[in-house]
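Reopening: structure tokens for the calcium ion complex, inputs below.
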Amino acid sequence: MFLGCGIGVSKSRPILLSSAPYWFAHPATSGVDKDRSGVISDSELQQALSNGTWTPFNPVTVRSIISMFDRENKGGVNFNEFAGVWKYITDWQNIFRTYDRDNSGFIDRNELKQALTGFGYRLSDQFYGTLIEKFDRQRKGQVAFDDFIQCCIVLQRLTDVFRRYDTDQDGWIQVSYEQYLSMVFNVV
Ligand SMILES: [Ca+2]
Ligand SMILES: [Ca+2]
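Re-run output (same inputs, fresh job):
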């Protein structure tokens, strides 16, 4: 999925263009750290990633991923943290390929259902329609690699917050207005 290394890229699928050990050793020399600051910024990571189409990688997803690994809140990741970013994205790539059963480069509604069911979610068919509608940035009725990651991140965060309140785990919670606002602020 990394671009910019002079190797061809598939039009329809995210392709890993560089071997991991090289990146672990020297993201700078491979061109990700464009300004050679020692920190990979959002825009540098975004430029290094491909969602398998010719559109830019979802900036919201890039921000989510950077913030997960940016321990000092410096607005980017250092080379050590980048190793974690690399593994995280590679893991997602493997998951994406596993569930993109028809190799279309997109996750359709059925594939999304398979994936999320595999992760342990129990959601109605109607809600899968809602998810596709929310995360399908390219308006294709299915989600690309970056939007699939985003969908899973948001769903996971919302579920974690819900679970904190659902102490008896019956799938129902009763919250006050301010509790509700706090729940949402935890995610947005
Ligand atoms: Ca940089
Ligand atoms: Ca597919």
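The beta strands are 40-41, 76-77. The helical segments are 20-25, 42-48, 59-69, 79-99, 109-118, 125-135, 145-165, 177-185. Marking as resolved unless the reporter disagrees.
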